[in-house]
Amino acid sequence: MKSLLNQVSWFFSSQLIVVLTPLISIPIIIRLLGIETYGEYSILMAKGALITIIGNYGFDVSAVHWFRREYLIKKLFINIQALKVTIVTASALLYICVNYFFTEVNINDILLVLLCLFQVLFPNWYYLSRRKAKTIALFGYMNKLLFLTLILLLYFAKGTAEIKYVIISSLFPSIVIVCIANYIELKKLRVGFNCLDLKLAKLLLKDSLHFFMSRVAIMSYSNLNVIVLSYFVNNVYVGWYSIAEKLYQAIQLLYRPLVNAIYPFFSKGVDLKMYWLLFLSLNVINILGVIFCYSFAKEIIYSYRQNIMM
Q1: What is the mean pLDDT of the chain?
Q2: C-alpha span between 13 and 66 (Å, rounded)
């Protein structure tokens, strides 16, 4: 129980940063880009989110039970990372080709593809499987603080900016944390390319397929909303809708730490007493949270809208 609470606390603290970051960064980005260009930026990020979902291929969930086999850890790390590189590269190339033939490929598309690649390469699945919530939290702090620092520097230095500079502000922190995380784990595990195993890779792909399909079904609809909307209204409306959706997603993200901590815990066995304790306590917290948000919804929305319009 103590171990689980420790995991939840670290995951919750890291997720709190993830939730707070858009609340701080969105008003700044809107002032840098303007609401219409922010709508264009939102469409681009929605496309990037789809590439990232495909690139992750459900390994964040499926890899957990594979780590019961301690003798496979080295092979699992290098094979899953290699599979993720292959999948996200194929997805990115498809995206570039579609853009090339139907619209055009510009610097924003190239930067978006690079951002997706580095986001996918962060070994989040490995840290989840090894119950390293503290490590995930620390890298999350580093990523978001670097991003906010770059956005603020951009705002105070230029006042206005193009989309490519905002994407670079996300890309640079991703490159830094991915390089550090992979270097540490590769050195610690002493993994080389000799650990690549085609048979194991096929098993991993087959095992993760149903997780991948469920993740695509659940997450793609929220990202497709922005893309589909862009075909019916102009970018100003897309921008405002994207702001509202970001706030909604930020609230949803508060639940993720519980899933990230509880799933590895229960994957090793069933504890009904613990399950019911968590179920009842979380539902009480959830109900109280909903009552609070409903009661002060008007004040919260008005306050945030005023901050954006300043």
Answers
A1: 79
A2: 27
